[in-house]
Amino acid sequence: MQRITILRPDDWHLHVRDGDVLNDIVPETSKVFHRAVIMPNLVPPVTSLEAAASYRERILAAVPSQHQFQPLMTLYLTQNTSLDLIRAAAKAPHIIGFKLYPAGATTNSAAGVTNVANMAEVFETMSECGVPLLVHGEVTEADVDIFDREKVFIDRYLRHLVEQHSRLKVVLEHITTAEAAQFVMAAREGVAATITPQHLLMNRNDLLVGGVRPHNFCLPVLKRRTHQEALQQAAVSGSSRFFLGTDSAPHSQSNKENACGCAGCYSAPAAIELYAEFFSRMNSLDKLENFASRFGAEFYGLPVNDSKITLVNESWQVPKTVQVAGQTFVPYWAGQELQWRLQI
Ligand code: DOR
Ligand code: ZN
User: What global pTM score does this model have?
Assistant: First the structure.
């Protein structure tokens, strides 16, 4: 196959930061994706409708005039999120859901939820109002090994949450384990998962063999190969419960190559090409369109996009570095080849 044309995709999990960085990175996403679910883990976090509305305006102002792009905003759930805010969010046209970060699980999650078990009223109100819950599914208890944190979160909290609130739409974000894929596959209707390019293309050997590779470090952390294979099977299974969410999460080179390096892979500069690389390696390019452009929209009850994009079978190299807001950033897959190129 020399070229493939698919419906324009959407990114159902994206970090665009703020300020000068935002201005430089939004076009990397808007050049190919029509919509993206914007994560609220700014400092301070996006916890109010007003903050989300002004953040949305800043994002729209950064979209080049030749692109069409819709940011779908999320609100950051805290232990103090009010039921009134949930009811108001349900009526707000640009809010797509609430993001649950267990406090301390990842970048800028300190204000997140400290006691998931105490949030039943909040989840039930979301369920009643039809507001989706987007979940960073990792426990933060210090005695739980970092490689087990997703599985333990599912067993300790998520299984029960999904059953207790039987109409709540739940997205388990950036899944990394066989247990997560199985959980989502077997769960009731209204439960889905996003999968990142790095969790499809890599496993923890790519993080640790031959030296620590800080640019492959994200959270939840890459797992062993058997988990990678389970995610790969989920992505090519054709199940509409699994869809594209890059979790592109830029940090500057100096913040990544650091004694305490930040978690996050900046995949936006090559996002759709990375997924094409994965589906192509699996001989499943015919599954790319549903995964990238249909299943997410269907889950959220939104129309699929009416425009299309074309990828050509032509190898190219992801830049070793890019300049963002006057600083050097190392994109995910930097310096490596990809076999599919976006035709602009
Ligand atoms: O690797 C990650 N980076 N995982 C997250 O959950 C957050 C993200 C970020 O904001 O940098
Ligand atoms: Zn994220």
Answer: 0.98
Q: Per-residue confidence at 1, pLDDT binned at 50, 70, 90?
A: confident
Find the Cα–Cα–Cα–Cα dihedral 188, 278, 220, 244, rounded to 10°.
-50
- Please state, rounded to an integer, the average pLDDT across all residues of the chain: 97
Provide φ and ψ at 207, rounded to 5°: -95, -30
Could you identify the atom of ligand 1 that is nearest to the CA of residue 250?
11
* Ligand 1 near 15 CB (within 6 A): yes
Q: How many residues does the chain have?
A: 344
Pocket test for ligand 1, best of 38, 42, 106, 217 (most atoms within 8 A of CB): 106
CA of 313 to the centre of ligand 2 (A): 29
Q: Tokens representing 225?
A: 């190969």
Crossing angle of helices 225-236 and 271-281, rounded to 10°: 90
- pLDDT at 107 (0 to 100): 85
* Mean pLDDT along residues 305-333: 98
Q: What is the pLDDT of residues 80-91, one digit of tens each?
A: 999 999 999 999
| 42-54 pLDDT per residue, tens | 999 999 999 999 9
Query: Shortest CA distance to 11 belongs to which of 224, 322, 332, 300?
Result: 300
The preferred substitution site among 15, 25, 195, 330 for testing ligand 1, maximizing ligand atoms within 8 Å of CB, is 15
Tokens of 15: 């970090």
The torsion angles phi and psi of 22, rounded to 5 degrees, stand at -55, -45
